[in-house]
Design a protein that fits this description.
It contains nine helices and eight strands. The longest helix is centred in the last third of the chain and has 20 residues, at 162-181. An eight-stranded parallel β-sheet has the order 7-6-5-4-3-2-1-8. The chain is of the alpha/beta class. The protein has a single domain, classed as Alanine racemase (TIM Barrel). The structure holds pyridoxal-5'-phosphate (PLP).
């Protein structure tokens, strides 16, 4: 199957409420262009340097999403162009994004990453840390005017156990629902980024609004 066919096939199965992020990390530009020529305009990368190089080389109507873990000192390299940062997991990082967005005269959309897996290695906040960050952002006198928290992101445990994955996605969805009810706190919380190649159908059943799909579109990574 070609990249184009993979993409069109997946797109045809997604509900209209679900946004597809084509995860192109490690893949060469001609592969991304094949996706672009098939109509894809949102690409996800997990390394800032690689994303910046692809941004420079590719058409400018692409939305670039940073889906990986972000080091504070590298935010400046993507601040001029990134359209959504999925993995925000600390106040320090959020403050740096705000600072760099301001320098670039931009407002950068962010998702707060919630820890839902039963794995030590995955990044993210628990509900209490989430509420602390929201409280700070809400009460910040200077106002973090150059960032916008538009939703949450999470990654389920890497397992074949569908029940466990479902439990983790449902947990994230319940935190998202609570957040959406807090209309006082944040302006526009509409994005729930969950689901990858192996679990996106389940994620959508559990309420995902944005799926991050790589290998099912571009093929496996070495
Ligand atoms: C690599 C990656 C994906 C895509 O994974 P696939 O299994 O190839 O679809 C999704 N989300 C994050 C955070 C990733 O790092």
């Amino acid at each position: 199957m070609s990249i184009k066919n993979n993409l069109l096939k997946i797109k045809s199965t997604l509900p209209s409420t679900v946004t597809l992020v084509a995860v192109s990390k490690t893949k060469p530009i001609p592969d991304l262009m094949e996706g672009y020529d098939a109509g894809q305009r949102i690409f996800g990368e997990n390394k800032i340097q690689e994303m910046a190089e692809k941004w420079e080389a590719m058409p400018k109507d692409i939305e670039w999403h940073m889906i990986g873990h972000v080091q504070t000192n590298k935010v400046k390299f993507m601040a001029p162009f990134v359209s959504l940062i999925h993995g925000v997991d600390s106040l320090k990082l959020l403050e740096e994004i705000n600072k760099q967005a301001k320098k670039n005269n931009r407002i950068i959309d962010c998702l707060l990453q919630i820890y839902i897996a039963e794995e030590e290695s995955k990044f993210g906040l628990d509900e209490e840390e989430l509420n602390e960050i929201l409280h700070f952002v809400q009460n910040d006198k200077d106002g973090m005017k150059n960032i916008r928290i538009v939703g949450l992101m999470g990654m389920a445990t890497f397992t074949d156990n569908q029940n466990q994955i479902k439990k983790e996605f449902t947990h994230l969805k319940s935190i998202f629902d609570k957040l959406q009810l807090r209309k006082d706190a944040i302006n526009r919380v509409s994005t729930l980024s969950m689901g990858m190649s192996g679990d996106y159908q389940l994620a959508i059943e559990c309420g995902s609004t944005m799926v991050r799909i790589g290998s099912s579109i571009f093929g496996g990574r070495i």
